[in-house]
Design goal:
Layout (H helix, E strand, L loop, with lengths): L2 E5 L2 E4 L4 E8 L7 E7 L6 E7 L5 E3 L7 E6 L4 E6 L8 E8 L11 E2 L3 E6 L1
Parallel strand pairs: 2-11
Antiparallel strand pairs: 1-3, 3-8, 4-5, 4-9, 5-6, 7-8, 9-10, 9-11
Length: 122
C-alpha cells in the first residue's frame, strides 16, 4: 500500500523557517517523482516544488524560488521541503504527492498524503 505521510507543519512568524518531511512507503522510491503542493483557504491547490528521485532534478514555483529548497534522502525514503523567509501568503495546507511518470507542478500525481498545516503570522 502506497503511503505518504507529511510532518513538520506548524505556526511560525513571518521571516521564520520550517522544514516539512514526506515519508514514503509502499513503492520503489527511486522510480518516482515527489511533489509538494499547497492549498490555502478558498484557493485552488498549487504546485510548490518537485524532485525526481532518480537523478535529483528539482523544480520550483516562481513564488517560492530562492526561499524553499526540496531535497530527498533516498536511504530514508523521505523528501524534505525547507522553507525559509516565510510569508503570511505561504499559509496553507501542504501536501506531498508521488507519481512514477509525472514530473512538474501539475495536479495529476497519483498518490497524495493527508497534508500538514503551515501558518505564517505577520
Amino acid at each position: 500500500e502506497v503511503q505518504l505521510v507529511e510532518s513538520g507543519g506548524g505556526l511560525v512568524q513571518a521571516g521564520g523557517s520550517l522544514r516539512l518531511s514526506c515519508a514514503a512507503s509502499g513503492f520503489t522510491f527511486d522510480d518516482y517523482a515527489i511533489g509538494w503542493f499547497r492549498q490555502a483557504p478558498g484557493k485552488e491547490r498549487e504546485g510548490v516544488s518537485c524532485i525526481t528521485n532518480d537523478d535529483g532534478s528539482t523544480y520550483y514555483a516562481d513564488s517560492v524560488k530562492g526561499r524553499f529548497t526540496i531535497s530527498s534522502d533516498n536511504a530514508k525514503n523521505t523528501v524534505y521541503l525547507q522553507m525559509n523567509s516565510l510569508k503570511p501568503e505561504d499559509t496553507a495546507v501542504y501536501y506531498c504527492a508521488a507519481d512514477p511518470f509525472l514530473y512538474g507542478l501539475g495536479p495529476g500525481y497519483e498518490y497524495w498524503g493527508q497534508g500538514t498545516q503551515v501558518t505564517v503570522s505577520s
